[in-house]
Amino acid sequence: MNPVFFRDLRKYPEILEFFRQEQRDSDKAAAEHFRQGVNQGIFREDINFDIISKAMSMQLDVLVYSDLAENYPLDEIYSEITILHMRGITTEKGARMVDHFLQTVREKRVN
């Protein structure tokens, strides 16, 4: 996506609200996945996943209201923000899974 797209979204609050509502709906599904991940030993059980889901949703605001996307590719921004969250909420088992996934993604970027 072109970074200008996110900057232009600032002009259309109704569209931004649509995206935010979609994200809230997605957050509900994510909460269930987090609960399953806790049961599987992937996510830490001492985490307030409502807060984590909302913080991850704020990624859209980072893209819309900052000029970060003018300096870095969108996939890299999203990846780095996601790494920050995922590494903080995973157990050792989950961290190994995240690291394996990231290694795969980075190898694809290089090729």
Describe the 3D structure.
- Helix 2 packs antiparallel against helix 3.
- The protein contains six helices and no strands.
- By secondary structure, it is mostly helical.
- The model has no long low-confidence stretch (mean pLDDT 84).
Tally of extended strands? Answer: 0
Q: From the alpha-carbon coordinates, what is the Rg to the nearest angstrom?
A: 16 Å
Shape: flat
Percent of residues in beta strands:
under 5%
Biggest sheet character: none
Task: Give the helix/strand class.
Answer: mainly alpha
Q: Return residue spans where pLDDT drops below 50 for at least 5 consecutive residues.
A: none
Number of helices: 6
| SSE order | HHHHHH
Helical coverage, percent range: over 70%
pLDDT average, as an integer? Answer: 84
Termini gap: 20 Å
How are the SSEs placed, and which strands pair?
Layout: H1 3-9, H2 13-39, H3 49-57, H4 59-65, H5 74-89, H6 92-110
Helix pairs in contact: 2-3
What would a concise description of this structure say?
The protein contains six helices and no strands. With 111 residues, the protein is mainly α.
Based on the model shown, name its key terms.
mainly alpha; 111 residues
